[in-house]
Each structure stands twice: as C-alpha cells, then as structure tokens.
Amino acid sequence: MPKKPTATDAQLILQLYDLRREPEMRKARSWWLGEFWPQSADDFMKVAGAMGSQENNWLRQVGGYWSMAASFVLHGALSEELFLQPAVSGEMVFVFAKVHPFLQELREKIGDPQMFGNIEKVITSSKYGRERLKFTLKRIEMMREKKAMAKAS
User: Fold this and answer.
1) What is the pLDDT at residue 136?
2) Which DSSP string corresponds to 29-83?
3) pLDDT at residue 139 in the model
4) Which residues of the chain carry a pLDDT beneath 70?
5) How far is 31 from 28, CA to CA, in rounded Å?
6) Distance CA 100, CA 137 (A)
7) Which of 130, 23, 145, 28 minimizes the C-alpha distance to 80?
8) Cα separations (Å) of 58 from 25, 47, 77, 85, 112?
C-alpha cells in the first residue's frame, strides 16, 4: 500500500522546491526545458561526452536532481502520491519524456542499464504516472514537430 502523505513529506517537497530555485539549477532547468531537444541517443551523447562544458554540467545536474528525488520515493522517504502531483514532479516527467523514445539505446551507449532508472520506476509504477507519461510524450512530440517546422521555415 502506498505511503500516505504526511507533514514530513510536505516539508521535504518544500526543500526540494527550494533546491530547484538555486540560480545555477534554474539555468540548468531552463536549458533542459527550453533549449535541449535531443532527437536521438547520439544527440544526448554529444552533450554527455562534452565533459566540462556548461551543457554537460546542466545535463548531469538536472538528471541527478530528479534521480535523487525519485530515490526518496522508491525508498519510502517521500509519498509517491504527493510526489507525482504535476506541480511537484511534472518537470521530471517532461525531462524523462524527452529521452524516453531512445532510452534503451542511450543506456547501451553509456553502458549504464540503470540510467534514468529511478525516474522511470517512479513514473511507471502507478497508473497515474503512466498516464502522465503518455500525455507528456504526446506533448513533447507536438513540440518537437513545431520546432522542426519553425527551423525549416
């Protein structure tokens, strides 16, 4: 049975929110959400392989943040029901949806079968999470198409 949300869960959510407001984290999140639109595992690998670049730092910072937050849920420190609310983790689903179409290939290329694993487990472990992912995947695809059409113009 899922853990019922508590006041301690709410406090942890607020602490996670505060971390998201840190200036460099804001830049990293902005880059992931607005500028980073990988079309393939190779696109992701270009940034992942550019060690020391700002984009590589941002790639790891956001991925690591959401993986850490998801681990709290997986280990019972944070209510899944509360965490999966769009205002709390909608961004995590959005980030995951960007890599989802080529995640298996990405894991093979990186050599890490658990890459994005905590995030994937939290999202796919509930009907609600799976529905949010499905919705977000459609939204991402529409956004990619718009970007491609704008680029072609």
Assistant:
1) 97
2) HHIIIII----SHHHHHHHHT-TTSHHHHHHHHHHHHHHHHHHHHHTTSS-HHHH
3) 96
4) 1-3
5) 5
6) 8
7) 130
8) 8, 10, 26, 24, 19
Q: What pLDDT shows up at residue 147?
A: 82
What is the predicted pLDDT for the residue at 1? Answer: 42
Burial class (CB in 10 A: 0-12, 13-18, 19+), 5: middle
In single-letter form, the type of residue at position 50 comes to A
| Domain range list for the chain | 7-152
Structure confidence at residue 59 (pLDDT): 98
Could you tell me the two tokens for 53? 């670049």
Q: What is the torsion angle, in degrees rounded to the nearest 10, for the CA atoms of residue 62, residue 63, residue 67 and residue 70? A: 60
pTM check: above 0.85: yes
Residue with tokens 């905590």: 118
Quick one: tokens of 47?
A: 């940034």
Q: In whole angstroms, what is the distance from residue 95 CA to residue 74 CA?
A: 19
**Helix-helix angle 127-152:86-99, to 10 degrees:** 60
